[in-house]
Amino acid sequence: MSARQQKRAIRQCIFCPTKGRMSEEHVWPKWIRRYVPFDTPAHVRASIEDQAHQENILHAETRRGDPRYRGVHFVCHGCNTGWMSALQNAAKSPLLAMARGEARHLSEDEQKLVAAWATMSVMTAEHLYPDAVAISSADRLAFAQNAGPLPNWRIWAASAGDNDWKGFHVHGTRSLSFPDAPITPNGAPNTQTTTLVIGKAYFHAFSSHSPRQAEGIEMDMTNGALKQLWPMQGSIQWPPPTLDARQAQQLTTAVFEMIDDRFGHDDPRFDPERLFQL
Which residues constitute the domain of residue 40? Predict the structure, then answer.
């Protein structure tokens, strides 16, 4: 569907029952452009299949312009200008400090705000790939009701600094079958990870239709560079040690590798991971 067709399409808001022509929601907020230049002349959009640590590029194309100008048309005007705008404004101060790499003591209240902002951004960003939506409508509706991070989510943050990792957004999806979340008849993905980079701040989120899968996930392979925002674990002194490019790339698939190691790479209940990367 072309960008013009996206704008004119009649659909339901992903956060409420409203139907009609949707407004545009920017994954990377417009206000951040005053502080973080969006000047990448071109970017690669790719889809990759990863199974047992073996990557297969399914599609890759180079596109003009900076991908951070991208928006999605899946949010109604009421949500966009109401609670979503209020959350953007509430999270702006700590988020801007993180994006600029400024020294800041992040209180638990600020971590919760930034985690809520990250949840909203992840939920909208996955609609850059409408065929790869893995977050449940129940999660989106629950989030819209209280604009707070959800108990079956895990959210981390790190300082990307000025490393040479070129990713802006990586969305990983899988169809996993568990007793409390069996694979749907059409095999739609039910578990996701998302990496989103805002300036010098690197965010990573995990969610699953099976709430138990978030339990016991420990992302400790970065020697303290990755900080857990949600659930909160105490105050955070920002910025932490900077991720290098290798760590930044490894983290994009780390959670699914943990799940593979927990259950076995050849478990027939699990489909291979699909990665969508900007």
Answer: 22-277
Q: Indicate the SS3 state at residue 275.
A: strand
Residue 272 within any structural domain of the chain = yes
pTM of the model: 0.90
Q: What is the pLDDT of residues 22-38, one digit of tens each?
A: 999 999 999 999 998 88
DSSP for 80-127, written as a single string = HHTHHHHHHHHHHHHHHHHHHT--EEE-HHHHHHHHHHHHHHHHHHGG
Cα separation, 170 vs 18, whole angstroms: 29
Residue 183's φ and ψ, nearest 5 degrees, are: -65, 135
Residue 47 φ then ψ, to 5°: -125, 135
> Which ranges constitute the DSSP H helices of 147-202?
none
Strand spans (E) along 138-221: 153-159, 169-174, 191-198, 201-208
- 8 in a structural domain: no
